[in-house]
Each structure stands twice: as C-alpha cells, then as structure tokens.
Amino acid sequence: NGPLLQYQAWYLDDGLIIGEPCNFTSILEIFQHVGPKYGLHLNKSKWSFYWPHTSTHLTQQLSQHEIPIKSQREGITYLGVPLGSDIFIVNQTVSKISKAIAKLDLLDRLYHPQIRYALVWHCLGFPKFAFLIRTLPPRLAGSIFVQYDHWGIQSLQNLLSLPL
C-alpha cells in the first residue's frame, strides 16, 4: 500500500502530486526505488513545493532528502499555467502578457508586412495564449487579456496602416 494521494497528474516527465505533507517521505521512496527500473530518475533541483501554510515538519523532511526548498506561498507554475491564489495567477499572467507585448512592439521594425502578419497570426496572437486562456479561471481571464487585445489590435492597425 502506497501513500494516500488526493490528486496526481502527469504529462511526460512533469508530475503534479497533491497530498498530505506526512506522505512526502513515502512518495519519495517509491520514486527512488521503483522509478529507475522504469527509466524515471528524479531531478530534485527542478522540484517545487507549494503549501499555503509553512510546515516545519515538511521543511525538515525536505532538508533531510537534500531537496532544495523552493516553497512558494502564493502558488506555483505547472506546465506554464499559474496555480494558486488569484493574485499569483494575475501577476504571472500579466508578466507573460508583458513579454508578448514587448515582442509585438518589436514587429514594427520588420519591413516586410507579410512576415509581420504571419508572426502575429501564428506566434504572437491567440496561439500564444490559447492554452493559458483555457486553463485560467474564467473570472480572471477576461479582465487580464483586455490589455493584450488592445496591443494586438494596435499591432494589426500598424501592419495594415488602417484604423480598425
């Protein structure tokens, strides 16, 4: 019998495990002993732990297993999606949007309008955030992406040299 987990999800070699801190040692031992025969080798430097309330017991367990403690009290990012408090989700998403807007601003330096259009359409428009939009809580997504929509329309107007 293994430890009781509330939830676990995997995509290729990225895993998300939700459970009680007291089960951490059991989960770690399973990965260390059973994992290698299936080609699973843990890279502890890439681990992140999220717990809203600091646990001295869990902190001691992490240090005993030589796992770097990267505790985020507000949330974590998993597969590019921020998970945690509303403030954390908004801040992480706004940061991603700001980076994309900076790239949109650079498009004005390109002379060739067809290349600019292709970059907006295939790389910096909706495809850039399609996965993120589908995974964010709906109550947050709409208000966050208004600013990006404005910049996308502005970029398209610059490209076409026409007001929309």
Descriptive report:
There is one protein chain. By secondary structure, the chain is of the alpha+beta class. Helix content is 52%, strand content 15%. The protein is built from 6 helices and 6 strands. The chain has helices at 24-34, 56-64, 86-106, 113-124, 126-135, 138-160, and strands at 5-11, 14-19, 49-50, 71-72, 75-78, 81-84. The chain has a two-stranded antiparallel sheet with strand order 1-2. Helix 3 (86-106) runs parallel beside helix 6 (138-160) and helix 4 (113-124) packs parallel to helix 5 (126-135). It is elongated.
Features:
164 residues, alpha+beta, two-stranded antiparallel ribbon, two-stranded parallel ribbon, 6 helices
